[in-house]
């Protein structure tokens, strides 16, 4: 659709700058936001500026919520972009080629279109509400068909310096890692969600996330036939910043194990 083309074009243009700067550590101008391990680089800011200009030009008046500049209220009260210009900044700084540009569009509080683009792998995940989730041109995405915890590979996020929740996380990990085929921590929540949609991960859970990490992935996973809730098993994901995404059979099994750990 025309809307998806706008989003894809913006993601590809912003990604050019990221790819150019990737690995050029001396040029990155890394700084910390506050005292925690919450880094920002010149590349995050440049990509965000590019996305803001292109999305705003194509759809004037839409509100714009992005990690580095916060919320810019538009005149259009029904539409809001939710943007992470670089998800996986810590990977990026360490020259680990696993990061993404994440763009979602909300209409009246519901995510209706999503793009998650990993430029290094050249994988562009996209979805439109009611029309399915796709990888690159035409490959339709489906969540994994595995239904047993014994077969499951789950992704998560390990809390780091400056983040709360180390103790509950370690309890959960202790419980769940004994029951599954594997747990992974790759460092980009947007790609964790996209990989659940693609059936690579059987599930993903994390806490302490923000709307720009999750909004696009929520639509990717649900359009790929999966289920996304917060860690209470309820719908409010963006408001709580906790998430569990998985296929319909795996979701309750993982949720039960996570809850039992608490
Ligand atoms: C981070 C990544 C990471 C998650 C952090 C996020 P950023 O996003 O998604 O996987 O564990 O909580 O903040 O800061 O690289 O955009
Ligand atoms: Ca960040
Ligand atoms: Ca992020
Ligand atoms: Ca970011």
SSE order and pairing:
Layout: H1 2-21, E1 31-32, E2 39-40, H2 42-58, E3 62-66, E4 70-72, E5 76-87, H3 89-93, E6 100-107, E7 110-118, E8 123-128, E9 132-135, E10 139-140, E11 153-156, H4 166-176, E12 182-184, H5 189-197, E13 203-206, H6 211-223, E14 227-229, E15 243-246, H7 250-261
Parallel strand pairs: 3-5, 11-12, 11-13
Antiparallel strand pairs: 1-2, 3-4, 5-6, 6-7, 7-8, 8-9, 9-10, 13-15, 14-15
Helix pairs in contact: 1-2, 4-7, 5-6
The structure holds D-MYO-inositol-1-phosphate and calcium ion (3 copies).
One calcium ion (CA) binds next to loops.
Describe this protein's structure:
Belongs to the inositol monophosphatase superfamily. The chain has helices at 2-21, 42-58, 89-93, 166-176, 189-197, 211-223, 250-261, and strands at 31-32, 39-40, 62-66, 70-72, 76-87, 100-107, 110-118, 123-128, 132-135, 139-140, 153-156, 182-184, 203-206, 227-229, 243-246. The chain is α+β, with helices and mostly antiparallel strands and 262 residues long. It has two domains: 2-140, Fructose-1,6-Bisphosphatase, subunit A, domain 1 (Fructose-1,6-Bisphosphatase, Chain A, domain 1, 2-Layer Sandwich); 149-261, D-Maltodextrin-Binding Protein, domain 2. The strands form three sheets. The protein has an eight-stranded mixed sheet with strand order 4-3-5-6-7-8-9-10, sandwiched between helices. A five-stranded mixed sheet has the order 12-11-13-15-14, with helices on both faces. Strands 1-2 form a two-stranded antiparallel sheet. A hairpin with a 4-residue loop joins strand 7 and strand 8. The termini are far apart. One calcium ion binds at residues 84, 87, 189, 212-213. One calcium ion (CA) binds at residues 84, 87, 189, 212-213.
